[in-house]
Amino acid sequence: MRRWLEPTKTVLLNVLVLLSFCLTGLLWSNQPKFQFIEPAQYTESKPVQEKQLMQLVTPESVVFHYGEDRHTKAVATDGPYSMIVREMSKWIFLDFTPYMFSNDNWGEIAREKMGIEVRFRSTIPLSIVGRLVTFRDEYDSQIKGVDRLWLYYEKDEDLVYALFLSSEEGKMMRARTSISPKDLRDSYLATGNQMPEQIMKIVKPERTYSSLEGALPVWNMYYLPKNQVRMQQFRYSYETISDERLIEAYFLDPSLVRQIMERDKTVIFTDGSRSVQLRSEQQAFTFTDPAYQQRAQELSDEEKVQGAVTFINKHLGWLDEYHFERMKKSYNEKDLITFRQYVGSYPLISNSVKPIDTIQITSEAGQVVTLSRSLLNLDKYISNKEWKVMSGPELYQMIRDRKLADTDQITNAYLAYQTIFGEGYVDLMPVWVVEMANQANLYISAEANQGGGKVHGLE
């Protein structure tokens, strides 16, 4: 027995060594198929309505200047507005130079020279404006954006110049244009001739700006209709975004989402990282995602706005008609980007109970950190009623008669729709929004011949 023990051990050892070699060979020749794990991506919501950036950045109005202090205005529902917006893609600008005017120059440009003024809702980044028109030369990079583009005819030189104006920064540039005086006079101004006559109200800045040596303040102005105009009051039904749709739109894996009920009846959906907070009394929600920037990068203002548009496109989409309103810095240097809802050419203004008027995004280095929007969206048209709207002089007279405010402190006034909710419907009521210097806005019913009108001190 002992005689066979050692040979048996040797044979077993050899078998084990041979088996080891075989297994090693199998491992080398049959590598496992590793699957590359992609970075987590949001599940896109069901497509509703996507928009491109340039569909959301459009002029608020076009004002036509005829000299002798005569002005008319066209808005998005008017043919002359559409004609000017189509023509903008053909406009070429060159020879940009920083510019400044004296008060006399401003008075002459505003009241006596022929021209057209393309007005935006707020300051638009210059790179975005450069996609609406054509820049042939480099422009002054010190000006970040503009809120007005003013074309005017310089008779002595027989040229049409353009002013790129930033009321926010108190700066402007002047450029030569490809527009001929004949086109300005016989085409552009001719088409706006029948639009409602306007009264120009000038707001002169109280401070001067030192960024350009010797520069004088940039004049700002707004326009009020000289006579009564017509506007529709609408009634719509509305629909509510379901919890299921929210979860599908904003979370990577709906199966990981749990619901939390706060003491104040606020509902929170969370997957442990992202959250959606529902404010039932307001019928609104806020999405929050902790900022995680993979790499530091410097983004242009256009890229930041584009990032916000892309995010909304992929998460619920644009359930109604919206336009880019503004981008500004928050107290902690994050970017606050606002899109406002419109019906026709008029913005929606909501009270604090059910805000149905804006989508607001906070982004950091281009990544969306928070998004706030309404759970409600307009659904089916129910009815309408035509209103005669107070003219500018009637509005001012009513403000004086009722001692609502000092009209010298008014910085802007425009027509809008205020949302009033009923049982299963929402009324869009025409109002005058009167912006005051260092005071809350006034919201005044726009209906003419109302014996003083209804006024709301909403903020």
TrEMBL record:
CDD domains given in the database record: YycH_N
UniProt domain Regulatory protein YycH: residue ranges: 6-452
Pfam families, per database record: YycH (PF07435)
InterPro entries from the UniProt entry: YycH, YycH/YycI_2
Keywords: Membrane, Transmembrane, Transmembrane helix
Bilayer-crossing regions: 12-29
Name of the protein this chain belongs to: Transcriptional regulator
Species of the source: Brevibacillus nitrificans
